[in-house]
Design goal:
Nucleotidyltransferase, domain 5; alpha/beta; disordered C terminus; 172 residues; globular; 20% strand; five-stranded mixed sheet
């Protein structure tokens, strides 16, 4: 194994939303391993946790990155779900890192990305494989497209990979 391969970290970012779960798995900024959406029906938290378990089994991440929602307007269900995912990952010995939306926007300030769609567009520009998933900009009367959760998950991976040294892990 080469020195760079032995230092490679696998990051799994998870973004729960009302329709399910967006995720991204990265080993470096330019090399996504996988990304996608998991639609969830029925008992959303229980079903989402089952999907998270599957993703962890498949990808064996070194770190799980989640959105810091403590001070956000996200629903109580999502806040509880994120806390439960973090607890589950820690129980497995996986490092857990949180970033809030402000950190995401600050990280993408270099390209004047002031909206989630602008961030998604920048990620799609740098990773052509994600271009097909990029939704059209939403109109003011439209709900946010759930596909944006793939790009938020990708952005969270980039933040974690860019952290020097490692991002401080905050426990709850």
């Amino acid at each position: 194994m080469t020195g760079s391969a032995s230092q490679r970290r696998r990051i799994l970012a998870l973004v729960p939303h009302s329709k399910g779960l967006g995720y991204a798995v990265f080993e470096s900024v330019r090399s996504p391993v996988d990304w996608g959406l998991k639609r969830i029906r029925g008992d959303k938290n229980t079903a989402t946790l089952a999907k998270v378990r599957q993703l962890i089994e498949v990808y064996s991440p070194d770190t799980i990155v989640l959105e810091d929602v403590q001070e956000s307007r996200r629903s109580e269900r999502i806040k509880t779900l994120i806390a439960t995912i973090a607890e589950y990952a820690r129980d497995l010995g996986i490092a857990v890192t949180f970033y809030d939306k402000q950190a995401v926007f600050l990280h993408f300030a270099y390209c004047d990305a002031s909206t989630k769609h602008a961030i998604a567009k920048e990620i799609a520009r740098r990773i052509p494989a994600l271009r097909a998933r990029l939704p059209e900009p939403r109109k003011p009367w439209q709900s946010e497209d759930y596909r944006l959760s793939i790009f938020l998950a990708s952005a969270l991976c980039w933040l974690e990979l860019a952290a020097t040294p490692r991002a401080e892990t905050r426990s709850r």
